[in-house]
Structures are given as structure tokens and as C-alpha cells.
Amino acid sequence: MSREPKKLKVPAEWSFKTPVVAAAFDSHVREQLPWYEIATGAVAHIARCYIPQNGVVVDVGASTGNIGRAIAKTLTARSAELIAVDSAADMAKVYDAPGQLIIDDVETFDFADRHPDLIVCFLALMFVPVKLRGAVIDRMKAAVATGGAIVIVDKIVPRGGYVGTVNYRLTLAAKYEAGASPEEIIAKELSIAGVQRPMSESELNGFVEFFRFGDFAGFVWEKPSAFN
What we know:
This protein is α/β, with parallel strands linked by helices. It is built from eight helices and seven strands; from the N terminus they run H-H-E-H-H-E-H-E-E-H-E-H-H-E-E. Strands 3-2-1-4-5-7-6 form a seven-stranded mixed sheet.
């Protein structure tokens, strides 16, 4: 018998460390982000192209293990290791994916010690304070193996002009059509104000775009052999 997914009552101040957020996260994120599965599939495809035999993958902001589940077959086929990182201890209670889950903040996590071939940041860096994001990205670039990659999917600062307004409305319309009520959409926008800060494309210098829907986009960076 199928179990009815839990409906999240959006807290006034958004936090992944709130137990109710962890418990209902999977159903909530798919309602709020209808393109979630498409982007996940794209990341899984890119991951398959960069995970070597006996490789190491770091999943930043792993939440319940969405990326780990998506790349599970590749991990098994190539005897690769997955290290999932999340700052919320309550997520550990609902994590359901391969690999090891470490409770830590991305700002302090030691990427270099893990020697990753691939780092995935799926809807994670937009919750890192702006003043710290550049250092986090620099540390990831330095740590990832030559020929390896960093994949980032996040909310991006809207482009200027009317096109920016159109893209924002596209994001809202998709949420509404996926079943989120106007009240829930507004509550979520107010809840994440100041907690979630969209990334700017200037923070992603050298990254190549592979996905975009409304205000959200995906980028990949490959480490060249001459990287300093």
C-alpha cells in the first residue's frame, strides 16, 4: 500500500535543521521545483561521464540522498565511493542512499582530504553566505582530481530587463501548476528571505551551463591538467 507523502507546513524561518523540513523534504521539493527530476537526471548523466573506476564522489547538501540514489548504479558498477555531506543532523535520520553521510558545514568540510573525482552541489550553495561562497568554490576546484568535475545546480540572480521578470514568473507558474497553493508559494518565498541567496553567474567563472528553468540553472566545471 502506498504511503501518502507528508505535506510540509513551511516554517516562518527556513532551516534544514528543523525536523519537520527533513521529514517532508522530498515531497515538498518536487512540488516547489517541478523540474527537479529532469535536473537530477542530467546530473546523473554528467556524473556517469566523470566517475572513474574506484573513484570518489562528494555530494554537498545531500539532504535525503537524491543524488546518491540517482547515481547508485554507476557507483556500484565502478566500485566508486560516495561521501554525502549535509549540515542538518535531522537529515541523517531520513537519508536513504548509498555511501557515507557526514554531518558538517560545507564552509569547513575538508574536500582535499577526500581526493574527489566529482563534487556535486545540488541546490546547496545558495544557502552558503555570499561572503564565504568564493572560498568554498576555490577549495573545491583545488581539491577535485585532474580531469574531474564540479557540478552546481542552484538558483541564479535573475537576468536584467523584462526577460528576468518573465523567468521569475515562469518559476512561480511551474510551482502553482505542480500543486503548490498561492499561500504556500508566498510562505516559502518569505521563509527563505535572507536564508537563501541566489548565486550570480560571476561566481561561476569557467563553468559551462547545461540546464536552465526559470531562475534555476545547472553548471559544470572540468579541472584541466594545467590548473594552478
